[in-house]
Amino acid sequence: MYAGAPLSLGAFRRQVPEASRPYRVPAAAVLSPLAFIIASLIIYWSGLLTIWKLGIVLVIGYVLIGVFMAFDKERPPLDWKSATWLPVYLIGMGIISWQGQFSGGAVAPPVNTNHIPFWADMGIVAGFSLVIYFWAMFTRLPKEEMELLVERQAGGQAEAKALGETT
Known about the structure:
Elements: H1 4-15, H2 28-45, H3 48-71, H4 85-99, H5 120-138, H6 143-166
Helix pairs in contact: 1-2, 2-4, 2-5, 3-4, 4-5
C-alpha cells in the first residue's frame, strides 16, 4: 500500500489537476516519485523472505479480484493495460532483493546472494522505481475513464449517505 499512494497521487494530479481537494500536497510532481522510491526501499529492506511471500499473496489476490469482477456485472471492466507495469515491478523487486543484501530473517543458509553491494543496491532500487513510476504514469487510465470511475464512486457514496439519513 505504501507504493500505491504515490502512484495514485501522480495519476490524479496529471489527470484532474483542476479537481477540488480538501488538501493539496505541495510539489506533488517531485514528492510522488520520491515517495514511490522510499516505498520501494521499504519493500526491499523487508527482505526476500517477506517479498516472495507477499508476491504470492498478491498473485492470489489479483486472481480473486479478476474472478469476482468477471461475475459482477455492476462493476466496470478491469483495464489490465494500465497495470502492465505491476508484474514487472513485483518480479524486478524480487530479483533485486534476491541479489541484494537483505534476506528478511535469520535463515541458514541465507536465501539472497549478496551480489549487489551495499549502497549500490539502494541506487538500483531507486533507479528501477523511477522507471516503474513513469511507466505507471504513462499507462494510467485515460482521463475520461478516471473521471467516470470517480463520479461513480462519489454517486455511490451520495446514495448511501442519503439512505442513511432517511432511515
